Amino acid sequence: MSGRSAPGAAARAGSEPAAARASAGNTGGPDDSGSAGGHATAEGHAARRRPIGLWRLEVLRLLRSFRLLAAAALFAVFGMTGPFMAMYANEIITQTNPEPAAELPPPQPSESVATFVDNSIGLGVLAVVVVSAATLALDARPSLALFYRTRVGSAAALVLPRYTVVTIGMIAAYLLGAGLTWYQTTVMIGTVPAGPMVLGSMFVACYLAFAVALVALAAALFRGLAAVISLPALLLLGLPALALWPSAAPWIPSTLIGAQAGLLHDASTADYFPALGVTAAATAVCLTAAVGLLGRREI
User: Fold this and answer.
1) Cβ(204)–Cβ(260) below 8 Å
2) To 10 degrees, the CA torsion angle through 249, 250, 256, 259?
3) Rounded CA separation 95/153 (Å)
4) Cα–Cα distances in Å, from 89 out to 78, 81, 83, 158, 179?
5) Which residues 6+ apart lie within 8 Å of 175 measured at CB?
6) In angstroms, how far is CA 294 from the centroid of its own chain?
7) pTM score
8) Which among 284, 95, 295, 113 is positioned nearest to 204, based on CA atoms?
9) pLDDT 10s digits, 12-42
């Protein structure tokens, strides 16, 4: 345990101490004894001491740390380049492979969306895991863990705001990329039906919520940030291997990723219901276990 005081460590983390002030309702402090004549100064100090709720704190943390910006930029790059790669696939193959090759047929809108998903989901899921771990691995910094644990009443209050805010942020980042692909594909290749596109995005959003819940569980099992990142990343990247068993493929959560392009091709919504049910159940189990384990863990 560091010899520094917890508030001092929290101050270095930007908005971290506000959580404790919010939870503890701490409105006192050395500045409260200031002179009565300095109304402007006193009001300024009071404004700075105004408690910030845990939910608002998590929103500010996600925005001010640029974690959301980094994830959004990643998905946006793939969202803009996916339709170009589908449109100019023949030229790309000709430039990268000197051997004669059969010319590909004109691209279809579903192929453009599939290119975005194939290119972005690997790095995208890894970015989601890293950003989520940086938010949910509370015990990775012992001084801050002590600071929060002694001021926030329950483990649920520590986990659920962080999980909800970072999940919404990561889904928004993905939707930005999907929206850019939708627009670019419509302009360059052809019309993309709105219903399947929106529904496919919702299925992928459920998968991302599961990924963040898995990170929350890892954060309750391990203290080190490397372990919190490694376990979910390995599981999420390894899940598609279960699709090698045809009977298991409809049930694994990663099947939901294929809904983004599959619904534009020949898949039906009902094809993804088994994976959706398993994903929802696994998300609930991971969150419940994360809250329970974190509540029993000693500082």
Assistant:
1) yes
2) 110
3) 61
4) 15, 12, 10, 48, 21
5) 201, 205
6) 20
7) 0.80
8) 113
9) 444 444 444 444 444 344 444 444 455 556 5
- Cβ pair 51, 44 in contact under 8 A: no
For the purposes of burial, counting CB atoms within 10 Å of the CB of 100, is it exposed (0-12), middle (13-18) or buried (19 or more)? Answer: exposed
Q: What is the separation, in whole angstroms, between the first and last Cα of the chain?
A: 10
**Phi-psi category of residue 25: left, alpha or beta, with phi > 0 → left and psi -120 to 50 → alpha:** left
CB atoms within 10 A of CB 9: 18
Tokens 């954060």, residue located: 219
Domain ranges (residues) in the chain? 54-297
Summarize pLDDT for 239-267 with one digit per residue, the tens. 888 888 888 889 999 999 999 999 988 88
* Inter-axis angle of helices 54-64 and 16-24, nearest 10: 180
Residues 114, 115, 118, 123: is their CA dihedral positive or negative? negative
